Amino acid sequence: MPDHGGLPLGIFGGMFDPVHFGHLRAAFELREALGLERVHFVPAADPPHREPPLADGGRRLDMLRAAISGEPGFVADDRELRRSGTSYTVSTLEDFRCQYGSRPLVLLVGLDAFLGLASWHRWRELLALAHIAVTRRPGAGLPESGELSELLAERREQDPARIAATPAGRVFIHAGTQLDIASSEVRRVLQAGRDPRYLMPDAVRRMILDAGTYSLPGETKE
Predict the structure, then answer these.
(1) Judging by beta carbons within 10 Å of its beta carbon (0-12, 13-18, 19+), is residue 85 exposed, middle or buried?
(2) In the prediction, which pLDDT does 220 show?
(3) Residue 39 forms beta bridges with which residues?
(4) Does pLDDT of 127 surpass 70?
(5) Domain containing 165 — which CATH number?
(6) Average pLDDT of the chain?
């Protein structure tokens, strides 16, 4: 049965190939800013705009679970890994909406992802299914013209209480602590044989180093 009550839920999709402190800090700050009951981290299986992940879904899910262990406000959610076909965000939100009824849902995205929103599959339907919370570096520019500028003019809302009072439809902008870490850079560190310490939780670091997950082809784990 759908869940029609309760605090808002956050939905944070991505490759998480691998998960790192940039992901975790952004999710933590948005959970606190918006009073989210929890954040669902949803690793993509078949992303439409990206090359396939280097680590398989099971490995990325295991790394996520290790990263958020002990944090009750975070959940590793495997629904896109279990679903066949392309991992479209709109389909994932439809799935959450079926599960949670009219409960407020908040899609968490970075500014770079938001700036590309108009290229997403059925992007105009996203705000019928969830709010969107955008995390950006303090002072980073927002779109000043075009469809996304118009969207912000019409839908921007900075009062968390108003977002919690409705199931979907608003855009929240959060100028948070942006850690300049990207999964692609973490992979390059690992492929260069360097230690990713302090870029990710140590439990994830140890999993990667023990398994040689991102070693270049032909390399063997010491």
Answers:
(1) exposed
(2) 43
(3) 10, 74
(4) yes
(5) 3.40.50.620
(6) 93
If DSSP codes are grouped into helix, strand and coil, which group holds residue 138? Answer: coil
> Which residues are CB-neighbours of 187 under 8 A, at least 6 positions away?
17, 18, 54, 214
Q: Give the structural domain span for 170.
A: 9-210
Q: Which of 8-22, 72-86, 128-142 has the lowest mean pLDDT?
A: 128-142
Q: Is residue 3 part of a domain?
A: no
Q: Which segments of the chain does DSSP mark as H helices, in order?
A: 21-34, 57-68, 79-82, 89-100, 111-115, 126-129, 146-155, 160-164, 183-191, 202-211
**Residue 19 binned pLDDT confidence (cut-offs 50, 70, 90):** very high
* DSSP-based three-state secondary structure for 81: helix
- In whole angstroms, give the CA distance from residue 191 to residue 7: 42
Counting the structural domains of the chain, the total is 1
Burial class (CB in 10 A: 0-12, 13-18, 19+), 9: buried
Residue pointed to by tokens 């398994």 = 211
Assigned domain for 44 exists: yes
Which residues, in sequence order, are bridge partners of residue 148?
Answer: none
Residue 115 forms part of a structural domain: yes
